[in-house]
Amino acid sequence: MNDRSESLTRWISRRIQPGQIVKYTGGGGDFIDDARMERLLHETGEPDKEQVKDIVAKSLAVETLSLKETALLLAVKDPDTRAELDRAALAVKKKVYDNRIVTFAPLYLGNYCVNDCLYCGFRTSHPGARRKVLSAEEIREEAGVLAGKIGHKRLIVVYGEHPQNDTEYMERSIKTIYGVKEKTRHGYGQIRRVNVNAPPLSIEDLIRLREVGIGTYQVFQETYHHSTYRRMHPSHTVKGDYQWRLYSMHRAFDAGVDDVGLGALFGLYDWRFEVLGLVAHSHELEARFGIGPHTISFPRLEPAANSAVTKNSPYRVNDEDFLRLITVIRLAVPYTGMIITARETPRIRSLSLDRGITQTDASTRIGIGGYSDATRTQDQDRQQFLLGDTRSLDELIREFAQRGLITSFCTAGYRCGRTGKCIMDLLRTGQEGKFCKLNAVLTFREWIDDFASEETQAAGERVLDAEIDEIRRMLPAVYPQFIEYYERIKNGERDLYF
Ligand code: SF4
């Protein structure tokens, strides 16, 4: 073994800290009870009208559904009842998030990885993958395009599990991104919230990320089904440890990172089981920490280079079931943010909006260095999967505005302490809307002035007029200060928020 592979082996051997699993499990099993979840799925019959009515009432009261109630929704076959559930999902979204939608861009910082997940083009045993880690200068360039030319304010930065992407690299790259400030048409652009999609980390490493000011910390379990998890993630790899991954969010809370994002890769196992897994995970976090997931993601398995699993999986989720799972998750965990990404086609993204999606990406490039290199089109050896929707942020925002939705670039919450339990309580009681409505209008004004095309501006102004009118009527006490901020933003000031 040469020096390089010896140090890599040492690095890998130190990744998992058994004490930081036992802390939560007591050395026993975890909170995902496969047998019970399978029973619920196979033994739950179609609910009657009264049952559906009661469950929907609970969702509309922004209460998390039980696994049994979720299984009942999953068992609905009647087309009329399914349509009723779709309408209820949208009503829940409107109650909690009103007509706001949040946009972000993913930024892949490197594609080195020590793991060997069978469904991934970046896995260590894929010889064709071209590997790269962005330097500080390259990160500045990427963030400069995102903040200064496209107009994003939020990123999800994505790190592989590898010493080249270790915690020190994460800290440095996040600081670099926050340091970017680019001149725009009327003001300046900045990335104001860096969410992180990273491998499971120790409590100590998570404290370091908290200290550089991360937003949401995402770790997707991929599949909650234990034996499928074992099959997909070879046991000699770090990712082969199901519980180290499952308790990532527990460690995050213990590190003081209280906005966490759950997710499953739909298509590895029965999608209905994964929905129950996400709900069970939400219950566990609520019970232990008093806070559920800030967001839930549900990417679908996509064909990946050199991966037979992605092409032949018997569990690939068709469009109809995909839309159903969105509806059921929205009803089961009513307060959570729900993210759909550009993996999906414009048609599916549009339909998902009617079922309560709250966040989406736009102008997306997932090839490493793809934002600043405009010549680089989709490239399977340099990205994890191919995109289904390559529309620009401007195009997407125009569609939203034409549907009466306001795109919020608000990032005030975590910067003034409205995170974790505080934000959860505000969401559950509908009060978050007050801050969010004001900040959505202020940040949308900024974006329109700095980045919108003429056509998008026209659609955006109509939404802004309607929102301002509503604020004047519904929030008279804050209206004078709000309108003062609004005028200052029109005159080129930036980053004013409530
Ligand atoms: S899914 Fe993630 S951990 Fe697994 S091989 Fe791909 S990049 Fe690595």
Radius of gyration: 22 Å
Poorly predicted regions = none
Please give the alpha-carbon distance between the first and last residues.
57 Å
The major sheet is characterized as: 8 strands, parallel, barrel
Q: Into which percentage range does the β-strand content fall?
A: 5-15%
CATH class of the domain at 3-29 and 89-391 and 406-412: Alpha Beta
The CATH superfamily of the domain at 3-29 and 89-391 and 406-412 turns out to be Aldolase class I
What do these coordinates show?
The chain is an alpha/beta fold. It has a domain at about 5-30 and about 90-390 and about 405-410: TIM Barrel (Alpha-Beta Barrel). Helix content is about 50%, strand content about 10%. The protein has 22 helices and 11 strands. It has helices at about 5-15, 20-25, 35-45, 50-60, 65-75, 80-95, 135-150, 165-180, 205-210, 225-230, 240-245, 250-255, 270-290, 310, 320-330, 345-355, 395-400, 410-415, 420-430, 430-450, 455-475, 480-490; strands at about 100-110, 155-160, 180-185, 190, 195, 215-220, 260-265, 295, 335-340, 360, 405-410. α6 packs across α15. The longest helix has 21 residues, at about 455-475. It is globular. The protein binds iron/sulfur cluster (SF4). Iron/sulfur cluster binds near residues 120, 123, 161 and 239.
